[in-house]
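Ticket #402: bound-state structure for protoporphyrin IX containing FE.
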Amino acid sequence: MSNAPVVSIDLATFHADPYPALAQMRKETPVCFVPELGATLFTRRDDVFRDEKRVDLFSSHQPDGLLTKVMGSNMMRKDGDAHMRERKALFPALSPRTVRDILAPRFHDIVQGHIDRLKPLGACDLVSDFAMPVSADALRLMTGLTNMEATEMDAASQAMLDAAANYQRDPEIDKRGYHYADRVQYLIEERLPALRAQPDHSIISVLDQAGLTLNEIAGNVRVIIGGGQNEPRDAIAGTAWALLTCAKQRAQISQGAATWRDAFDEYVRLVAPIGMSPRRVARNGSACGIDFKEGELIFFMFGSACRDTVHFPDPDRFDIGRNTGPAIPFGAGPHFCAGAAASRSLIADHALPMLFGQLPDLHLDGDVIFAGWAFRGPLAVPVRWDGATSLPMSGNAPISSP
Ligand code: HEM
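RESOLUTION: The complex was predicted; output attached.
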């Protein structure tokens, strides 16, 4: 085992709110072994930013890991040329040009459809009624899985992620995860003939055009469903919640003093939807003054890095005026999120401005609880609009650690 200091956590407390424990780790034991997680955590931003690039020591290649077992072989669990081959193949589907010319107009239509559906209702839960279906419809479009219902996309994402984190080997969780993994492959096979007859910019089509096998396409599409559904959902609902809690900061956007992108970037800094990324120690070696042994598990803690006081003064505060440049909610190495540009467009250019622009009296209508440390977001964001009875807006009240 490495000689990192050992720090114990209470798993339930860490799940409810990991930030106090992470702040203490950053201050006192920035690289520490947490027995309850069976991993050594890197908690400071500069350490994560530097060491995520040391792929010779901290490898993504984890063929026996649970994620690979459930989802199949995929780019996120590969290094070097094997990773680059699949990453390059994916590029045409999510490149800045594809986002601007092909996806953005469709994102507009998707968001408009959901606002039109919700507007007469006067109230909803932003997570399940708006952010979830918007994210799922965007993912159906991006993947090419137009034969999959939005609710099934959401269920598949959750079931495969749960199975990939099923360290206690609960057979029911495994069964559900593997069921949806098979289902995704079935739906890909169903779509392939049409996409071969008429190739397009969807993920299935570009991976097929690049010569990836069915298994390689399925593995990558499953990982993208796992990472591309809940995160935009949580970021849409979470950023909306933050702005609904801080009327003065919302006014800065309407007055042109700040942008929707500022709000999105600041929210994903404050509550990174993906809080960590795991790596395997590839050989004996040292980092941050700690000696690691081959085979050990380490976690790069993006959620902690994004609250590091070295870069972010008063880091638990939502502040759309701050410099979010050093934040790394999309990663900081060769596995930097391939969907970052598409997510910014969907959330900051469409979902948020259209939501606030078309439901102008939008306000919170109840408490909002956050959960998770590896994946974190609001469980529900109840809202009302059109002058329905509501809680008063809270001015510029400081946000307690979400
Ligand atoms: C707010 C939304 C999102 C956030 C916060 C997010 C965050 C992340 C993070 C933290 C990683 C791992 C980076 C690393 O280990 O260095 C990642 C990887 C990835 N993400 Fe995202 N993601 C989001 C949305 C999406 C979407 C919508 C897609 C695709 C449609 C996507 C596709 C990917 C892919 C393919 C990878 C693996 C890249 C590789 O291994 O080279 N993500 N994402």
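RESOLUTION NOTES: The radius of gyration is 21 Å.
TICKET STATUS: resolved
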